[in-house]
Write the structure tokens for this entry.
Amino acid sequence: MKGMDRRDFLVGTGLLAVTPTAASAAQGTDWGAVRREFRLDPTLINLGLFYLASNPREVRSAVETFKRKLDANSHDLMPDQAQEVAVALGQYVGGAPDDIAFVPNTTIGLSIVYGGLRLRRDQELLLTDQDHAWHRQAAQLAADRVGAKVRIGTLYANSASVTEDEVASRLRNSITPQTRAVGITWVQSSTGVRMPVRACAQVVAEANKGRSPEDRCLLVVDGVHGLAAVDDDAARLGADVFVAGTHKWLFGPRGTGMVWVNPQVSNQIVPLLPSLSDRSETALLGPGGFHAFEQYYAVRAAVEFHQRLGRSRVAARITELATRFKDGLAEIPGVVIHTPRDPRMSAGMVCFDVPGQPGPEVVGRLKEKRIQITTAAYRIPYARIGTAILNTPAEIDRTLKEIRSL
């Protein structure tokens, strides 16, 4: 915007209050105004907005605009719009647009990466016991096709007290000369643990010393619950591959996602499907055919929405609310928090147990009070919340009160 910087725009739209001396990055933003940009159920406290995000007004408007254009002339697929989306995502994650492929979601992105990885029968894929089942299945399907192995490791003893050094040490001891890829999750939806990706990347880099390209170990990150929830550049974490849906914390249109590949290893992953784009080696990984183009093109609007708010403000607000919830849980006798209290090892998800009540039962009882939480769909279904910028401190306090009453 010519003649207007980002702060001026935020003030002009009412999303940023004029309080330049605010003590934290989360302060100074009118979160009530932000919330009003979304079509939320006013009778529901929704602490599960990360599941499939609500879209802000400008994203909905962008979808409708592109839909009208396609309705008017369906032969006009507007390839320039796709490039603009790649540019926007590249800027947001700290990478180049040519290193990004479009995919419908994280699951398909991971499947394309593992399925296209140049993998031999004598090699293995190393994942962790806290990765999503579909992450593990994507790796297993790829390994089965060539007769390779998938090995599942454990990178910490206790999710609540995990440290960066513990994760790095266990990973270092788990990688073998046969390990072709290490798969981890940036923010685990099973525990709320925020994995130290940079430390893991350093371990993988050490393991790669002296290896040939065809034996190089790649670090693959499922980043769906970190993208737009953590104030960091996904493409600068040290990973080789970063996969994430954009329809969660980024508030992007449903059915949209991305794969970023380090250009140094792009020749190690080959396309599985015909592609709609030949703009780069990585873009070829994206599946071709017809898509809901109005959804894809509107991803740019979601990125711009976050950029105007400021990623640091968004992450700070998410952390503020998550910390408030964890602090409140800690005061309730018997409740066990499975997510680290340390913000450096956690993000916007908090997993916990209420004594004598399984996670699904806690979800059901809170639902009766018009409070939406979820369970972690893993071996142990902990009760779980996510703190979005659309939530309020009052909602956190009300939820804690109801949990206490259980």
